């Protein structure tokens, strides 16, 4: 029986804990002072207080105190930190991720780019720059719009788009400064050609410590808002139509992973020019990804469980020919952010939570009624993943699942997700990474109108009828304040019409 | 409507307003609500009241978020005029106030200098991100925070005489 320390919080900590329990292992979770009432804490058999989710020493100490055999980093926080991985391995524990060497090689955008060139994988045209003048010349050489990147960029930092060479020169100084402010240490800044209206397709990789690497087909994550993924699906509608593109990305991803001697789960990301079908490697994520669930559904392979087994030095029990695509899966991410206020993180207490329940819908979440959403952490609070034999079936199921979902108390993007799924471009699978932003204003207006209709109905229905059946409670009654009592056999009982009363 | 059949004048009346003309009670908790748009077109929506949740064909809502909706509706209107930096900076008659505590990283303009609308006045850092703050209008820069200074929440970044 192994003991797994999960160095993450929220939905992914609960997900990893489940995989550990399924193996008969013992999950151990961690929490910080301001997060100790979060549901993920209870997912572990024991839970240990740490000073911060990013404090390496505190987490290593927690792992040693609880006698952990394996550390799983989830995503975010320290999951892509080679120093943390090194410390875990040095402390004699297993690491549910790639080797620190592979992490350094692929995690850094700059070295990953060089590795791709070595492996014969196509990347975007680029040049390294050290000054504003160089940036100007480079942008002129590349032509068109360019992107200015720091090698350690991430989460929207250290990354800017320039329309003209002059702008590139100006933005260079900001990126260079951002790279040194945010991350510490020296970073290489480089310019890259920008592909207009690209699609984002990525390949899931799984490898063991004995050099056996397989791919689990691709995912498409082109529905984004400012690089933040909103909806993902597997397989990619584009790759399904253009089988040659699929072939290229899958082969490139495997070549790159082999070149890096990659082990455990990882993702190789590509951007595809939908007009020419050219696929360019952009970066690799040396960790489990948020959207791993869609791949799990269409391939039937439990990625997290394999991660734990690989960390235990087991051989991967899957051959490439065993991996097949079955059906279609689409994931919608619910964020606790306010679409009306530039998507700023929204905080509050979840007053009411109703998640969809269906055979074909998987909900990964760590929310519960009465829980406070803390703005200090990730704003993604739930992932709703629908499965179907065809894409249209999965879409229909996702739409119904989103319609049933209620998450009140904080502002969420739930309404926005509902209208995106109804959009024609989404239904046809013809979208790129900018489609959502281009349509955002119109979609928000649509949401607005529906919200207005819903609140009109609520005012009408709840002021005349249902209010009369509010529950009277003992104590201060805070827990039931505003609740309406309902039973499955139908409340009010007896029906109001029996009593000769009219509602509304 | 103000209850006496008169159309209310006020900011809540946006151009594409809908109103409820009829509510039919079909079954326990099931209603058909008929809406009329301003152009006179009618549409009906079948809703289910499940306790404190109202289920419509386009989404389920908790009643509390709908009944307190007037507040959010107001914010929604504000959004329309907000610029891309409005999550961080408040512009009020030429004064840029920060909504979060920030650090000024670089200042491009000097006091007394002329600025055009949209010109970047300074760059601030918050949450490890750098943000360019543009001038809200064309005018003369009266005062501006110093480079390297920390500005607390609600503090003034710069003032432009428009």
Description:
The complex is a heterodimer of chains A (about 500) and B (about 160). Chain A is globular and about 65 Å long. Chain A starts with a strand and ends in a 40-residue tail after the last helix. The longest helix of chain A is centred in the C-terminal third of the chain and has 30 residues, at about 435-465. In chain A, helix 3 (about 80-90) runs antiparallel to helix 4, helix 6 packs across helix 7 and helix 13 packs across helix 15. Chain A is an alpha+beta fold and about 500 residues long. An 8-stranded antiparallel beta sheet of chain A has the order 14-13-10-11-12-15-22-20, sandwiched between helices. The model of chain A is unreliable at about 465-490 (pLDDT under 50). Helices cover about 35% and strands about 25% of the residues of chain A. Chain A has 5 domains: about 5-95, Rossmann fold (3-Layer(aba) Sandwich), CATH 3.40.50.20; about 100-120 and about 195-325, D-amino Acid Aminotransferase, Chain A, domain 1; about 125-195, ATP-grasp fold, A domain (Dna Ligase, domain 1); about 330-460, D-amino Acid Aminotransferase, Chain A, domain 1 (2-Layer Sandwich); about 465-504, no CATH class. Chain A has 15 helices and 23 strands. Chain B is mainly beta. Chain B has 2 domains: about 20-80, no CATH class; about 80-160, RNA polymerase II/Efflux pump adaptor protein, barrel-sandwich hybrid domain (OB fold (Dihydrolipoamide Acetyltransferase, E2P), Beta Barrel). Chain B has helices spanning about 65, 70-80; strands spanning about 20-25, 30-35, 40-50, 55, 60, 90, 95-100, 100-105, 115, 120-125, 130-135, 140-145, 150, 155-160. In chain B, the strands form 3 sheets. Chain B has a 5-stranded antiparallel beta sheet with strand order 1-2-3-4-5. In chain B, strands 6-7-14-12-9 form a 5-stranded antiparallel beta sheet, with no helix packed on it. A 4-stranded antiparallel beta sheet of chain B has the order 11-10-8-13, with no helix packed on it. The two termini of chain B are about 40 Å apart. The model of chain B is unreliable at about 1-15 (pLDDT under 50). Chains A and B meet through helix 7, helix 12, helix 13 and helix 15 of A and strand 1, strand 2, strand 3, strand 4 and strand 5 of B.
């Amino acid at each position: 029986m192994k003991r797994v320390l999960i160095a993450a919080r929220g939905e992914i900590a609960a997900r990893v804990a489940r995989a550990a329990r399924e193996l008969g292992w013992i999950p151990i979770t961690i929490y910080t002072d301001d997060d100790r009432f979060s549901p993920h804490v209870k997912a572990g058999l024991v839970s240990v207080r740490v000073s911060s989710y990013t404090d390496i020493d505190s987490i290593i100490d927690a792992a040693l105190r609880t006698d952990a055999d394996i550390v799983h980093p989830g995503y975010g926080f320290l999951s892509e930190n080679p120093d943390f991985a090194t410390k875990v391995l040095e402390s004699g524990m297993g690491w549910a991720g790639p080797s620190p060497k592979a992490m350094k090689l692929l995690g850094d955008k700059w070295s990953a780019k060089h590795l791709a060139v070595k492996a014969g994988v196509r990347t975007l045209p680029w040049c390294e720059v050290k000054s504003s003048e160089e940036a100007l010349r480079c942008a002129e050489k590349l032509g068109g719009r360019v992107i200015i990147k720091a090698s350690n960029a991430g989460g929207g930092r250290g990354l800017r788009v320039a329309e003209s060479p002059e702008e590139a020169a100006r933005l260079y100084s900001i990126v260079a400064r951002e790279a040194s402010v945010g991350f510490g240490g020296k970073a290489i800044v480089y310019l890259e050609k920008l592909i207009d209206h690209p699609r984002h397709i990525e390949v899931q990789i799984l490898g063991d410590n004995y050099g056996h690497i397989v791919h689990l087909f691709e995912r498409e994550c082109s529905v984004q808002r400012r690089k933040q993924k909103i909806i993902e699906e597997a397989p990619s509608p584009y790759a399904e139509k253009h089988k040659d593109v699929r072939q290229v990305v899958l082969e490139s991803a495997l070549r790159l992973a082999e070149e890096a001697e990659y082990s455990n789960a990882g993702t190789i990301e590509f951007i595809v020019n939908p007009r020419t079908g050219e696929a360019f490697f952009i970066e690799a994520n040396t960790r489990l990804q948020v959207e791993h669930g869609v791949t799990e559904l269409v391939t039937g392979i439990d990625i997290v469980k394999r991660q734990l087994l690989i960390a235990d030095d087991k051989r991967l029990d899957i051959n490439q020919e065993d991996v097949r695509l079955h059906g279609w899966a689409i994931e919608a991410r619910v964020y606790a952010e306010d679409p009306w206020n530039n998507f700023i993180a929204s905080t509050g207490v979840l007053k009411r939570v109703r998640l969809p329940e269906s055979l074909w819908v998987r909900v990964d979440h760590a929310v519960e009624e009465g829980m406070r959403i803390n703005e200090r952490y990730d704003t993604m609070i739930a992932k709703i993943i629908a499965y179907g034999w065809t894409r249209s079936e999965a879409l229909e199921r996702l739409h119904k699942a989103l319609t049933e979902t209620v998450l009140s108390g904080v502002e969420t993007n739930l309404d926005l997700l509902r209208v995106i799924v109804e959009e024609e471009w989404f239904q046809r699978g013809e979208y790129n990474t900018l489609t959502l932003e281009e349509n955002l204003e119109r979609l928000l207006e649509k949401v607005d109108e529906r919200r207005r209709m819903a609140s009109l109905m609520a005012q009408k229905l709840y002021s005349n009828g249902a209010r009369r059946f509010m529950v009277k409670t003992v104590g201060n009654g805070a827990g039931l304040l505003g609740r309406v009592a309902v039973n499955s056999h139908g409340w009010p009982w007896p029906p109001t019409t029996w009593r000769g009363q009219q509602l509304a | 409507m103000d209850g006496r059949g008169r159309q209310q004048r006020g900011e809540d009346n946006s151009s594409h307003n809908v109103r409820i003309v009829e509510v039919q009670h079909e079954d326990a908790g099931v209603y058909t609500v008929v809406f009329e748009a301003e152009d006179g077109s009618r549409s009906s929506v079948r809703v289910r009241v499940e306790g404190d949740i109202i289920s419509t064909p386009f989404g389920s809502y908790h009643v509390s978020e709908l009944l307190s909706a007037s507040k959010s509706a107001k914010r929604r209107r504000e959004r329309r005029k907000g610029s891309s930096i409005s999550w961080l900076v408040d512009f009020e008659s030429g004064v840029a106030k920060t909504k979060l505590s920030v650090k000024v990283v670089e200042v491009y303009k000097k006091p007394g200098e002329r600025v055009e609308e949209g010109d970047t006045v300074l760059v601030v850092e918050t949450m490890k991100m750098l943000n360019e703050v543009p001038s809200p209008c064309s005018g003369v820069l009266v005062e501006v925070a110093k480079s390297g200074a920390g500005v607390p929440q609600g503090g003034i970044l710069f003032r432009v005489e428009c």
